[in-house]
Amino acid sequence: xxxxxxxxxxxxxFPHVVFNAMNDLHVAARRCLEATDPADKVRLSxxxxxxLQAGTLAADAASPAxxxxxxxxxPALPRLVPARELAQRxxxxxxxxxxxxxxxxxIEFNAIDLAWDAIYRFRGKPDAYYVDWASCANxxxxxxxxxxxxxxxxxxxxxxxxxxxxxxxMAEKTAHSDTARMALVPRVLEARGLDVTPxxxxxxxxxxxxxxxxxxxxxxxxxxxxxxxxxxxxxWCCARDGxxxxxxxxxxxxxxxxxxxxxxxxxxxxxxxxxxxxELAWLQTLG
Length: 287
Hints:
about 290 residues, mainly alpha, Ferritin, two-stranded antiparallel sheet, 10 helices, about 60% helix, about 0% strand, disordered N terminus
C-alpha cells in the first residue's frame, strides 16, 4: 500500500481538525470494508496489515466518526437468502463438497469485513486492540484465498452457490456496543466454527477429501486465536464499564440469541480461546 503523507481537511462537522487520512487505520479499514471485488478486498486486507506492521498506519484520534453501519462492499453474487432456504447437499458428490467449501468461504469473506468493522467502528481502544483485529482480518483474507483456490480445483468459484447473511446481520445489531460486538460475533458466531469444524473434517476424510481437510486444519487452529481476541476485548470492555463478564455474556446471549445457541461445543478449543470453566459448564446446559 502506498501511503501518502498529505494532510487531509476533515469533514464540515470537524471544521478545526486536520488528520492524515492516508495514514489513518480507521480510513484504511473503511477502504477494505467498501471493496466489492473479493480479490480487491483480500489485496487491501493484506496491504493494510503489512502497513500497520511497518508502522505507516495507526488509529488516528482525529479521524471522523464512523458512518452508520450498512452492508459492506460485496460482489453481485452469491445471492443472499434466509438460511432455511439454502439447499442441503451431501458430501458424497463433487457438487456437495464444493457447496460446503463455498459456505465456509462465505463465512471467511464475511469475517474479513467483521474484523475491519471492529477497527473502523469502535474508536479510542488500546493499540493492541487494533493490532488484534487487523491480524484477524489478514488471517481471514488468507483463509478466503485458500478456500477460493480449493473451489477452483472443484470446478467452481465464489458466488456459484447461494449464501446467507447471518454474520453481518449480527454486526448490524451490535454496531452500537463494542461489548455486545465482542461477546456475540467472535465468542458466539465465530466460535461455532470451533464447534462444528472437527465434525466437518471427519466427514470429509471419509470422502477422501484430504485437500479440504488440510485447509480446515489451518483455519481451525487460527480461529482459536480470533475467538481468544474476542474474549480478551470483551473482558476489557466489561472491566472498563465495571460489569461482571460471565453474567453479562449470559444476558447478551439471552437478549440477542433468543435461546438459539445449542451444542455440542468444542470444549477444548473454547477453553484455549479463553472461556472459563463456569462458562463452559453453563453452555452445556443450553441443549
